[in-house]
Specification:
Blueprint lengths: L1 H30 L35 H11 L1 H5 L22 H4 L16 E3 L4 E3 L1 H10 L12 H13 L26 H16 L6 E2 L7 E3 L17 H11 L14 H11 L35 H6 L3 H11 L6
Antiparallel strand pairs: 1-2, 3-4
Helix pairs in contact: 2-6, 7-9, 8-9
Length: 345
Amino acid sequence: MEELRTLAKQLFKLFSVVFVLVGLVFILLLRYEPKHETFVPIVNEEITPIPIWKPKDVLSEIVNMPGEVKKGYFLIAETSKFMGPQAENPENRYSGNNLACANCHLQKGTQAGSGSWVGVLERFPQFGGRGNKVGTIEDRINGCMERSMNGKMLPTYSDKMQAIVTYMDWLSEGLPENRKAEFKGYPKIKIPDVAVNLEKGEKVYKKECVICHGENGEGVINAVDGKSYTYPPLWGADSFNDGAGMHRVITAAEFIKSNMPYLQATWDNPKLTDEEAYNVAGYINSFSRPHKLNSENDYPDKKLKPVSTPYGPWSDDFSPEQHKYGPFPPIMEYYKKEYGITKTK
């Protein structure tokens, strides 16, 4: 009997403890208030795309151009008026024809594949075989003045020279590293293994070129001043002289392939084939043009002379005819074998 009383007491204690614990849990549940965390949805932030670099739209920026840049612009866009035959002051007549620099350096020097000036200052000083020396950008500009413009050199530190260089620098603002090669020189062509076919070149000229450059290569005169050119002459007395790079068939063909017909072709979307550009370049250069005095002094190291340079002397026995019209690969092979020189033009 005593054992039952003891068991009953223990059970009572146990139930009492359980009852107290249940009560405490119940009280805690009544007082519990859950924490309300603010839910912030994760929203993908709008990614601002990196702007694609584009050459300057020069004409739209004329009003806001810095003064020195604007001066350079007018010198290259209206060359004959400000430093050529039309200049009021005879002392400013450096250019010898009525071409403008922008007649060849298209879109005011911004067009890739046309000897663009975008990024050009970074490439100077550089070695030039024509003078057999390291030359500055000013030397290069004066090379054009004496040859393409059939005139005389600008003083290196003249206001005109400095304005042109400043303009070139302005065109290059913001040029990214991965776009620099695009604006350098002229894209190469596959040089045919045969000589220029003048008959085929004439057909290309009459089909694609005559509308702008005229039946006799005379170009189209600017209707406003009646003296400068909307489209330049390609041969004749008012064109580039025979010492200009454009008088070399390969150089001319590279330019033509990348840029002509005007506003129809670009370096990455040409209209003419390599062969068409090659033949029409030879046709254009078959006509007479002003003679560059002392051209025999060009390329003191004659081995560095481009194979399509049409005037001698040369460091080989190939004929003047072949140097002018090709075929050029045999001449290139000769220089590779005899002198270890790889020529591409």
